[in-house]
Amino acid sequence: MSAAREADNIGDVAAFDSPGVVSHDFCDVISVTSAWKSNLVTEATKCVGDDFLFDWPYSTKSDERLLPVFWVSDQNGTIGILYLDNFFPVSPRVQFDPSSGLTLKDLKPVDSGNYTVTVIGPNNTNINIQNVHLLVFEPPQTTNGRLEISSDKINQLKCGHFINRGTPPVTVVWEGPDGSEILSTNYSEGYFVLELPVNSMDGNYSCRLDLNSRNCLASDSPLLMDAVSVVGRRPSNYEKDLLDMRSQVEALN
């Protein structure tokens, strides 16, 4: 079977994961001088559910056509191949438009990574490569769609409850009654925990998301509202010991 006939019978995308499968006999009859049409984006950030266009259009002479064009992710392998004007996606989320490039639809966190497009000329020559680093952000989620402050221990406040901190993971900022910002003591089981010293100030304590980076939350999301808790006078260590002793005595009776 001739190389041209073999090219017409493409049926397995995996068979073209390497430029080496291109027949040299067939390549010898095609001359390619490709060029990128525009300035290409090298860094991009998108949100979960968005579409992303790999805007990598190229141009050739009127009597030329390119051989393989590979779109490859360092995390997920080959996502699409253009071969002899036929496009082979590896997922229904991958779509090709000759006038604009390749679109990856309904983005997911696992789509983050480095992507490369490789345009290959005859005999594996005139190889053009472009790269873009894609970050897919996911908004945080809580059990009831907002932040709440709770406390099940003396001198401790908890802000949450998070079931997903998002991508990249969010943190919270606490604010004391005097307006000063306080760092969480730790994060545990979906809550940012703030341990309060016995002599800490009484008044309103609030927590809010630290939004120093893109978070993909809607502008009216309840998660953007501060959670507030009123803290009154807390017992001293001596008073806490007395309360513990009283509880133990009551338990014995």
Automatic annotation (TrEMBL):
<dbReference type="InterPro" id="IPR013783">
    <property type="entry name" value="Ig-like_fold"/>
</dbReference>
<dbReference type="InterPro" id="IPR036179">
    <property type="entry name" value="Ig-like_dom_sf"/>
</dbReference>
<protein>
    <recommendedName>
        <fullName>Ig-like domain-containing protein</fullName>
    </recommendedName>
</protein>
